[in-house]
Amino acid sequence: MKYLLLCLLFAGSILHAQVVNKTDSNRVKSGDTLVIDTGHKDSLKIFKPTINDYQYQTRFSEKKIFDTALSYDKTFIFTQYNNRDNFGRIQFSNIGEGFNPLVYEVNTEQNLSLLPTRKSFFILGINDIKYYDVKTPTTTFIYHNSVSTGAALQSTYTQNIGKNFNFAVEYMGLRSLGKYLHNLSANNNIVFSGHFTSKNGKYEAFAHYIHQNVNNQENGGIADIDLFLNGGSNFNNRLNLPVNLANSNSRFSYRRYFFSHEFRPFASEKFPFKIRHTIFHQGNKYYYGQQSPESYWFADQSELVDYPLSSKKYSENLSNTVSVLFDQKNFKLDGGVRHQLIKLGVGTAFPAAFGYPQELTENRIGAVGNLLINLWEKVELNANLEFSNGNHFGTYLRSQNLLKFEPIKDYFVNAKVNFQTASPTFNLLMNPSVYGKFNYFLDQPKNETITEIGGDVNLKWFKSSVFANYFRIDNYTYLDSHAKPQQSGSSLNISQIGGEATFSYGKFHLNPKLLFQSAISNKDLYPMPNFIGRANFFWQSKMFKNAAEVQAGIKLYYFTKFASREFFPILNEFILPGTNSQTIGGQPIGDVYFNMKVKRMFFFIEAQHLNTTFMKNRSFTVPNYPLYDFRLNLGIVWYLFS
């Protein structure tokens, strides 16, 4: 109830714009407000807004309209607490706990910052913040029920003040008790954003403030797996299963102030130059707390060191960039210089015996550049480059290159070549702990270098696509089975290939998605399933004299059995399995769902993991952490265009 009250104070919620429409059907089309009375009688024009009057964009994207269609992909998005399609991941038993990533992917939010992997799945980066342009005050609510007790509710209110300024306020609150002991999740975030354009169009500014918290109780998983697999009916009540940790928790805080503005000094179209300035400050804090030492982590008092029970790590990034832009419709080029002040530290100094520093601080100087070329609306090249250098964290270089073209009408090809060399994620550089064996400082690590080559082909037939990716990671940085950071002396090579299609017959539709992957070398450093598959068979139709639209179907999710990495709560990271590794996967996860759209309101009702109602749950997210049992999952999305 308190989340509802907070949401009412902030006046509602807009669409969490992680929705990606592959056909870009939500691009802004020509024409917006309809004139339904031209004012011939009394000179007063009457306007009726259309969906094209409700738009959003990120800092460097084109504008799109709100996607209010009941498409098949919505059932994968609005049944997830983070409102994203999480294909290639497997969820922990409680919402708000994150996922075990089954597929290798590059998360640029971890570059030169502290961001534990399991805390990363709801984080909103700079390029995730939405700026709006709406004709009337707009609100959207997104609701998810919880596991056991609690709820998740996201709401945003956005409004234009005049034609040139828009502001938005978003609040998300999640609290879910979970079905196991010490399993509480409590996440929240608040976002303030604004967008201003001068009347003459020469000046434009974007600003936002965001504060996110991802907090979890940590129970260390099931203490006796045999009780879960073979125990009597008494253990069907999951609260009766003993867990490894009794009084531990982890908290992550993410805060950012962002301001970016640009000015066009010349009015003539012959001189399409702009000057852009961007400044932001981002602070990340990670805490691991416990009321007393957990016997699960040590065998003898001599393994403890003189350090507080609760530990803290943090990183800060103050970034200041000035660029010059050449800005035309089909050709954009900008380049600039960047200064960063970066810090990485711990709250309480390490015990003197370790000799580790308490804080690393450095000034970094670098450059940024972007190129966009659009030819005949058929070929588009988008290239980005960022470079910086410092004493502690070395050279950072990231190059992203995306080529889009349409060789044949309605057939699209996206090709990418990305390169990155950067310091390992800050969470693996240092860690303080009351447990002596979990203290470390990775001094002067080698840069982790990632080369990514891939792309996808979108075909007209069956709305299908085929994709392939290849990764080469040099100096791959990982946590071994003792939770100590290591760097590989040889490269890790990963290949991925897959596809998706939609087959339709009347009102019946089948949407399968497949992924095959393999580590070509160093397979033991990144265990992964060789195959991940998902199938969605559904019926969709208008009903009740076209007043509602209904989807009803079955979803199956499956990945092959493999010896998964283990979850390590102290760092909120995944570590290599030990000698007695536990395999996960090899069992289907079946859901039955019923979705309905009535005007601008969507209902998503899903019986998750339904097969556990007639067979015993033997599925795991990671070793010692069972996958959720059967639950009735409810999602509601409501757009209010005033």
UniProtKB/TrEMBL annotation:
Its recorded name reads Porin
Q: Which domain of life is it from?
A: Bacteria
Q: Which InterPro entries match?
A: Porin_10 (IPR025631)
Range of residues in the leader sequence: 1-17
Give the record's keywords alphabetically: Signal
State the organism of origin.
Chryseobacterium suipulveris
